[in-house]
Amino acid sequence: MSFLSTGTVNYKSRIARAETLASKYEFASEMLHFYAAIARFQGEFYEQLPKLWGKRPRIQGDGNLRSHLILPILVEPFRRYLSLIEAKGPAPLAGAAHELSQASQASWADLLEEFWKVGLLEALENQTGDPMAGFLARAFLIPYAEFLVGGLLPPVLPMTVCRCPRCSSLPLLGVLRPEGDGGKRYLQCSFCSQEWEFRRILCAHCGETEESKLPVYIAEQFPHVRVEGCETCKHFLRTIDLTRDGNAVPLVDDLAAIPLSLWAEENSYKRIQTNLLGT
């Protein structure tokens, strides 16, 4: 079992792809332009982190990604981030960003620490917390997580795992990358964006292996995007097939594939983990 390190994160490619798809899909244009604004901030933050971090080791001796949140270096970037969301975000989110910007820095620290330690899974399972605050924390902390994992050696994976071997988050996407005459399947983490190899015929939520119970739906509008369902647990994974479109940027193409969510809803499937904008 192998682990694919994404190396230096390329936010420029994410932004460029968002702009390309925004011009192609009018129904997703507003959402993609908003994502591009977020990605510009994330990219700038990611580039600033080495200087902000200084000479500290990226990860503590225990190797636990989620134990390492350096709050003092986050205050000023978080202030700028809230101003961006207030200016560019849809009204409910802009209102939440404004309200949070008026709160104390201690409140900011509580929000970021809670999300960093608990992550996405528990909040989904327990239906706890404010979804607006959850979005604000998630989008802000993604480049921080990407920066940290970029300094780690690839983990040894003894078996197929359904959780990120770096940060224990759920997978956001499947990615089919060209290999030989076909494609090798990876899962991409919903938080730190790293990828790890995953069997082709296997549910990424419950482990179902019977092919007849793992239907795949592909819409003509998005021939390189697969909706991979599971009749056993009624969850689905969206997979970006780079063997069909080598220009795709999985994180961004996933945001544009809004109509595919309708098929999943009509067939009573629940996504393993929603993307940043909930499409």
Task: Tell me about the largest β-sheet.
Answer: 8 strands, mixed
Q: Which ranges are low-confidence, i.e. pLDDT below 50, for 5 or more consecutive residues?
A: 122-127
- Principal-axes shape call: globular
Give the number of DSSP strands. Answer: 8
Q: What sequence of helices (H) and strands (E) makes up the elements?
A: EHHHHHHHEEEEEEHHE
Whole-angstrom Rg: 18 Å
Q: Helix/strand/pairing class, anyone?
A: alpha+beta
Helix fraction by DSSP (H/I, runs of at least 4): 40-55%
Number of helices: 9
Explain this structure.
With 279 residues, this protein is α+β, with helices and mostly antiparallel strands. The protein has a domain of 121 residues. 42% of the residues lie in helices and 14% in strands. The protein is built from 9 helices and 8 strands. Strands 1, 2, 3, 4, 5, 6, 7 and 8 form an 8-stranded mixed sheet that branches. A hairpin with a 5-residue loop joins strand 6 and strand 7. Helix 1 runs antiparallel to helix 2 and helix 5 crosses helix 7. It is globular.
